[in-house]
Amino acid sequence: MVSIKLKLKTKANAESEHSIVLQVLKDRQKKIIATGLLVKKERWDDKEHCFKTRHPNAMQNNRLLDTIKIKARNIISEFEIDDVDFTLNEFENRFRFGSKRSKIDLFEFWDSVVKDLVLSGRTGYARNNRDTIRSLRKFHKKSVLHMREINVTFLDKYEVFLRSRGGSNGGIAVRMRSLRTIFNLAIRRDLIKQNLYTFHKYKISKLRGKRIKHALTMAEIESFKNVDCEGDVQLLNAKNYFLFSFYARGMNFADMMRLRWSDITQTRITYARAKTQGNFSLKIVPPVREILNYYNENRRDTNYVFPILLHDSLTPMQIENRKHKILSQYNKALKILARKAGITKNVTSYVARHSFAMCLREKGISIDVIGETLGHQSVLTTKAYVREFGVEVLDEAVEVLL
């Protein structure tokens, strides 16, 4: 059941005028859409939801309100005729943009999508989208970008712009995939026609390149373990985070950050991975126990294991901002630790996960088992984690047959 009503916003402006808004209710959810009209409370009929007759422009304004209500009812009827169980966001998009599909402003639509991502707690994804919007605005240099303007030529020039600013194939592909996702969403919501989709011709796959995946050997892990942090708390935390990730099946930083003492028993750690929502249960091995003991002895007034999130009641955006800040500090500290350990590879937080996979592979563990420990849904993903072996390793594998 869907209901619509015109009402006043509670808060008035400096002139004691209230905004008139359209309230749409569906499945106990509410959406408020501004009409752009203002009125003082004494000139508004709360019972009839219209301007009182003593208002100087009552007749003209009430006709406008009737038009708004008719438009809203027509949109609801269109959804019902098409048998579409629409969301309130889809209603708002149809109400605001109407049938002028080719004139949809990409920036306006994309900003509304980002707001929904933040509300749903997907702050990391929202940040990535914001970064792409910011980049696209710098390239376009105009406040409005109609979706019909984005064709192969536009994308080619945007790619050149990104390269001129030091963009790599991987970074450019991230921007283009974000843009492609927004086009797909606009088509699915019936805001633009399918023929405006230009990614049939502009192929993002051409940007795919083989990234060098750095991984540490067991010998390098031992060197890393033996680094003296010389009382530097930031270096000690970075060392602990890296080794914990390595020995906890390549647990990534986002999951370590959110790990709570309530996720830990005497022998196991159980948690849901933020990226995939897959459930993990892993045995606490001695190096992990040693790190947990250290943070238990230096426990803070939160339920979080690591000193990354400093309060239990942070908002999703505060958590995302904290993650961004500490991850940057963590990666800088890893560079110092690697140098102290005599490691020339580029060590980042993600290297712990790759190193875990590679060290298992070097110990003879099968790709399938490694994929299970990492939580991969496809063996192809796991293969991307492990580099090709040298000829000596292959020779030894053949000698097993003799």
From TrEMBL:
What keywords tag this UniProt record? DNA recombination, DNA-binding
Domain (Tyr recombinase) ranges: 211-399
Q: Supply the InterPro entries for this chain.
A: Arm-DNA-bind_5, DNA_brk_join_enz, Integrase-like_cat_sf, Integrase_catalytic, Integrase_recombinase_N, SAM-like_dom, Tyrosine_recombinase_XerCD
Q: Does the keyword DNA-binding apply?
A: yes
- Tell me the lineage of the source organism: Bacteria, Pseudomonadati, Bacteroidota, Flavobacteriia, Flavobacteriales
BP terms from Gene Ontology: DNA integration; DNA recombination
> What is the name of the protein in this document?
Site-specific recombinase XerD
GO MF annotations, alphabetized: DNA binding
> Record's Pfam families?
Arm-DNA-bind_5, Phage_int_SAM_5, Phage_integrase
Q: Please give the family membership noted in the entry.
A: Belongs to the 'phage' integrase family.
Q: Which domain of life is it from?
A: Bacteria
